[in-house]
Automatic annotation (TrEMBL):
Record-linked SMART domains: rADc
Keyword Transferase: yes
Alphabetical keyword list: Cytoplasm, Methyltransferase, RNA-binding, rRNA processing, S-adenosyl-L-methionine, Transferase
Transmembrane segments annotated in the record for this chain: none
Protein name: Ribosomal RNA small subunit methyltransferase A
Length: 313
């Protein structure tokens, strides 16, 4: 066996369990809960993810949290160009070395940005695979850090309109919340805000055994397909402000939950009725189009709550 920790031990060049541990030891890296790190070590799993995302040679794929490179290598195997955003400096430095050693023909199709994905404000901050001017990514395929999955996802959908397709691995509970329809038990802020940008659906489950270390939670894939936001004169910030207010007290009726946002309960009721929404409903019954209508009527009425909402969950 070679002394180079980045050198392949399998013909395909993908990472197996022994490779992941060997690379981690060579880099002096231990997965941390703070960064939400659990490294995938199963070639079949990463290939399944790539197939499900329908990644091909024409794609420019954004990967967040590549870690040791398991999914990165599988993405590059398709001929796609990959932009990897890694917050951990040692991992960011090591990723190009790993790719060059295990899949040298693909090294020129990888660009790495050492940064927090929450700071990606647009395509201009992303490096281009092979150098040159920035390239707008077409797909997001990633094993997202579980502790920040929703805000990272929403931030990238907002700041990178070129992303048309998303397939991400997240905690199973989070996948349920993102893909939940109105009225379901898991429907909430992530569901509504994701629906502003895309249509979301569960796309399968991932066994705990393919990770190192083995996580204490189940994982799942969620797919998002970009669509146009609802037609409205309200801004995205206006709409998200209504969503935040409605779910801050989700067991209350909209009349009560939106009282602080609108200035008073009667003012909230007036806006709701103008928007054609029953004030006695709870926020979990409304879809993104309903929230857009409320925000539009609030803005027209000059309600105090017509203010910015967050990209958080």
């Amino acid at each position: 066996m070679t002394d180079d920790p980045a050198a392949p031990t399998e013909p395909a060049g993908l990472l197996g369990p022994a490779d992941v541990r060997r690379l981690s030891a060579a880099l002096g890296v231990r997965p941390t809960k703070t960064l939400g790190q659990n490294f995938v070590h199963d070639a079949g799993t990463v290939r399944r993810i790539v197939r499900s995302a329908a990644v091909g040679p024409d794609d420019v794929v954004l990967e967040v949290g590549p870690g040791l490179g398991s999914l990165t290598l599988a993405l590059l195997e398709t001929g796609a160009r990959v932009i990897a955003v890694e917050i951990d400096p040692p991992l960011a430095r090591a990723l190009p070395v790993t790719v060059a050693a295990r899949m040298p023909e693909a090294a020129g199709r990888l660009a790495v940005l050492q940064a927090d994905a929450m700071t990606v404000t647009g395509p201009e901050v992303l490096p281009a695979p092979g150098g040159g001017d920035g390239v707008a990514p077409t797909k997001l395929v990633a094993n997202l850090p579980y502790n920040v999955a929703v805000p990272v996802l929403l931030t990238l959908l907002e700041n990178l309109p070129s992303l048309r397709e998303v397939l991400v691995m997240v905690q199973a509970e989070v996948a349920d919340r993102i893909a939940a329809p109105p009225g379901s038990r898991t429907y909430g802020v992530p569901s509504v805000k994701a629906a502003w940008y895309a249509e979301a659906a569960r796309a399968g489950t991932i066994s705990r055994t393919v990770f190192w270390p083995v996580p204490n939670v189940d994982s799942a894939l969620v797919r998002l397909t970009r669509r146009e936001p609802p037609e409205t004169t309200a801004t995205r910030e206006d709409v998200f402000a209504v969503v935040d207010a409605a779910f801050a007290q989700r067991r209350k009726t909209l009349r009560a939950a939106l009282a602080g946002w609108a200035g008073s309960a009667p003012a909230a009721e007036e806006v709701l009725r103008a928007a054609g929404i029953d004030p006695g409903l709870r926020g979990e019954r409304l879809g993104i189009t309903d929230y857009a209508r409320i925000a539009q009527h609030a803005r027209s009425a000059g309600a105090p709550g017509a203010r910015s909402g967050t990209l958080g969950a």
